[in-house]
Amino acid sequence: MRLLDIQMQFPERRRTEMATNNKLHIFIVVFAASFTLHPGHGFQVIQPHNQTVNADGTASITCQHMANVSGVEDVRLNSLPLTGQLSHKLLCQKGMKDCEGIVMHEDSPNRYLFIMLNVGPQAMNLKYECEFTIKEDDVDYTEKGTPTILIAGEKEACEHRPTCPAQSHLPLWIVIGVLALLVLYSCAITTACIGQRFTNRGPENSVYVEMRPMSTPTYMRSS
């Protein structure tokens, strides 16, 4: 009798396990479909790996996302140490009125430009991370890019080399030389014009005098 009960319970248990497995499969399919229906989730953030500092001490970092959305909820530029990623510091953010030493410009709805001013040695020891937040079907998604490292330009590199040629004064000497040549050329042209003018003109205030023989007075003839 017990054997018969066990045989009757086995199909029932089998059906329960199959129903549970079917529910699990349905959950997995729905969960995977939710990722497919939300293209903004897991979007890519693009930024340069290296960026050279200009001679005037400025550097620009371009942040761009590849999500298929019409707008951006938020965009941020963070700084973090070169040797770690735990200590993030917010430098500039969309809507922030006063970004210290940074100017943010929107090139397009998915592309922003951060211009860093007065980049010094302390800023060179940090790396910079772009962060985007977008909204898809009333859900916010946030992704970060691979941090950008600043590279010293020609001016900064020369400051650390005592034998670097001083090329900063070269344009000034060129300008001075060109101005000197222009002054000499102007003087030569002016002198030539004045000499030609005096050559073509006769003596000033000259008076023409006609010389005629003097006639003898009548009273002298009668005597």
Helix content, binned percent: 25-40%
Number of strands: 10
Kindly identify the CATH topology of the domain at 45-159: Immunoglobulin-like
The helix/strand order is HEEEEEEEHEEEHHH
Q: Would you identify the regions where 5 or more consecutive residues have pLDDT less than 50?
A: 26-40
The number of helical elements comes to 5
Calculate the mean pLDDT score and round it: 76
Summarize the biggest pleated sheet. Answer: 6 strands, mixed
The general outline is elongated
Through-space gap between termini:
201 Å
> What structural class do helix, strand and pairing data support?
alpha+beta
CATH level 1 name of the domain at 45-159:
Mainly Beta
- State the fourth-level CATH superfamily of the domain at 45-159: Immunoglobulins
Rg over CA atoms, rounded to whole Å, is 45 Å
Overall CATH architecture of the domain at 45-159: Sandwich
Indicate the proportion of strand residues: 25-35%
Describe what you observe in this structure:
The protein has about 220 residues and is α+β, with helices and mostly antiparallel strands. It has a domain at about 45-160: Sandwich (Immunoglobulin-like). The chain has five helices and ten strands; from the N terminus they run H-E-E-E-E-E-E-E-H-E-E-E-H-H-H. The strands form two sheets. Strands 2, 4, 5, 8, 9 and 10 form a six-stranded mixed β-sheet that branches. A hairpin with a 2-residue loop joins strand 6 (about 100-110) and strand 7 (about 110-115). It is elongated and about 130 Å long.
